[in-house]
């Protein structure tokens, strides 16, 4: 979608109760919304063309779910209009608004056809917008791609084999950069794995050595150093501050889970805790990372 809204086709649908789906399209030419409004108010006659699209009916002898019916209607409308049917939804508009708010000029890399992703991962619009916020902090270039160095900077990681593996996991097409879609799908995939919440609990309990229900800075340092050896104190501190959501100097269970839901890929830092635990050998915890 480009910067301005074109009203070449305004498609409307309504149900001819109780079953048949009627649709029509109003053609007003390729014209920007502001220009159209101006012209409409400045002339006595306004012309438009209304075309009724084919009526879509449910099968006579079998039941059909509302979602399936809507899908079939969408396909019929797209084919009557001779346009490609996409999976953009209102969530894409929320992403576009966020990208615009952040001063991005090219929105297309951030419109990821959310209907498909939401169907796969049951991701809410606000979760997707939160992931976009993280991604935009990684300084994407004009085509919406993020480099490894910017990725590890925002996640407060240092260069290590683990960080490289996380980046490679996201970079599905292996071109050395990540797009928002790659980042979103990888994050949602990890966060929505059935074992994710259980993995968070195990990681928290294993890191909380003195069992006072908080992870102190030294406990955190001990735990993360097992994943990334030779971490400097300042690097441990930076990562600790990201997990300490309320900034009270210790990581509570809520802090820990909130941080990992915002940055699901960081669960990889606690992978060593899962190896000794028989979390669920059948499904394989390695799958999480
Ligand atoms: Ca890529
Ligand atoms: Ca503790
Ligand atoms: Ca805290």
TrEMBL record:
Molecular function terms, GO-annotated: calcium ion binding; lysophosphatidylethanolamine acyltransferase activity
Keyword set includes Calcium: yes
Domain EF-hand: 158-193, 231-266
GO biological process: phospholipid metabolic process
Keyword field contains Transmembrane: yes
Gene3D superfamilies linked: EF-hand
Pfam families reported in the protein's UniProt record: EF-hand_1, EF-hand_7
Keywords linked to the UniProt accession: Acyltransferase, Calcium, Lipid metabolism, Membrane, Transferase, Transmembrane, Transmembrane helix
Superkingdom: Eukaryota
The protein's name in its UniProt record: EF-hand domain-containing protein
Origin species: Ambrosia artemisiifolia (Common ragweed)
């Amino acid at each position: 979608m480009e910067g301005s809204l074109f009203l070449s086709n305004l498609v409307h649908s309504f149900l001819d109760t109780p079953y048949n789906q009627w649709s029509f399209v109003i053609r007003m030419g390729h014209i920007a919304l502001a220009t159209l409004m101006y012209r409409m108010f400045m002339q006595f006659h306004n012309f438009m063309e209304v075309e009724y699209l084919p009526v879509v009916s449910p099968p006579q002898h079998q039941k059909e779910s509302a979602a399936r019916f809507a899908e079939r209607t969408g396909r019929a409308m797209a084919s009557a209009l001779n346009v490609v049917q996409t999976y953009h939804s209102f969530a894409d508009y929320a992403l576009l608004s966020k990208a615009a708010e952040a001063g991005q000029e090219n929105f297309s890399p951030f419109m990821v056809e959310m209907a498909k992703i939401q169907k796969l991962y049951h991701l809410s619009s606000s979760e997707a917008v939160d992931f976009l916020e993280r991604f935009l902090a990684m300084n994407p270039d004009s085509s919406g791609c993020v480099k490894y160095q910017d990725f590890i900077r925002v996640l407060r990681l240092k260069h290590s084999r683990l960080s490289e593996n996380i980046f490679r996991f996201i970079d599905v097409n292996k071109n050395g950069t990540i797009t928002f879609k790659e980042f979103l799908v990888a994050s949602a995939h990890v966060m929505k794995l059935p074992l994710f919440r259980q993995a968070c609990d195990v990681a928290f309990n294993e890191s909380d050595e003195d069992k006072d229900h908080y992870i102190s800075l030294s406990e955190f340092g001990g735990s993360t150093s097992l994943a990334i050896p030779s971490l400097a104190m300042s690097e441990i501190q930076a990562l600790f501050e990201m997990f300490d959501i309320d900034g009270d100097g210790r990581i509570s269970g809520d802090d820990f889970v909130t941080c990992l839901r915002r940055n699901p890929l960081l669960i990889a830092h606690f992978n060593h805790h899962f190896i000794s635990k028989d979390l669920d050998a059948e499904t394989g915890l390695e799958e999480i990372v």
